[in-house]
Design brief:
32% of the residues lie in helices and 21% in strands. The chain has 164 residues and is an alpha+beta fold. Helix 3 (99-109) packs parallel to helix 4 (131-147). The longest helix has 17 residues, at 131-147. InterPro entries: Impact (IPR023582), Impact_N (IPR001498), Impact_N_sf (IPR036956), Ribosomal_Su5_D2-typ_SF (IPR020568).
């Protein structure tokens, strides 16, 4: 399933402007849900969310994301992620100190289980300060919402009652 180009592929910025409803998800068995790219002062943020039932398959998931055609994820400056799967929670900052904790907290507060969220940042040369947290959270929540992974307080209470 290789794509051959007669001319060079579009630049990464142009590929980020494409709609993400039709992207090829590669060999990952579960659906991928992508946020819209968010650009703030030359930095671009993009998030992906998917089902992750076994923590041992996370490296395969990340490799699949890096191999997606039409995106230039390999050139991203930061890769932040968090997942909750099979009773295991894990996160990584990817060079953005504290961002992994923020993503893990988002998964915990939304009551998400067996899910992974990955946020990519392409640094644009301008420091965003605390606004970067808003951007990271916004794209992560959008990807989780597209996948239906975030649950309201009422749904969380119902899930707790069912587990008892």
């Amino acid at each position: 399933m290789y794509q051959y180009y007669l001319r060079p592929p579009p630049s990464w910025a142009a590929s980020l402007r494409r709609p993400y409803a039709t992207f090829d998800q590669g060999h990952w068995p579960n659906p991928l849900h992508a946020s819209s790219p968010l650009t703030d002062r030359k930095s671009t943020f993009l998030a992906y969310a998917s089902v992750l039932t076994d923590p041992a398959t996370f490296p395969e998931f990340l490799a699949n994301l890096r191999a997606l055609p039409g995106t230039n994820i390999k050139r991203a400056t930061h890769c932040m992620y968090a997942f909750r799967a099979a009773g295991v929670a894990h996160q990584s900052d990817g060079g953005e100190g504290g961002s992994g904790d923020r993503l893990a907290r988002l998964l915990q507060l939304s009551g998400s289980e067996d899910v992974v969220v990955v946020v990519w940042r392409w640094y644009g040369g301008v420091k965003l300060g605390s606004d970067r947290w808003k951007c990271i959270s916004k794209v992560a929540m959008e990807a989780l919402d597209k996948g239906g992974f975030r649950h309201g307080p009422e749904e969380q209470e119902q899930r707790k009652k069912k587990k008892r």
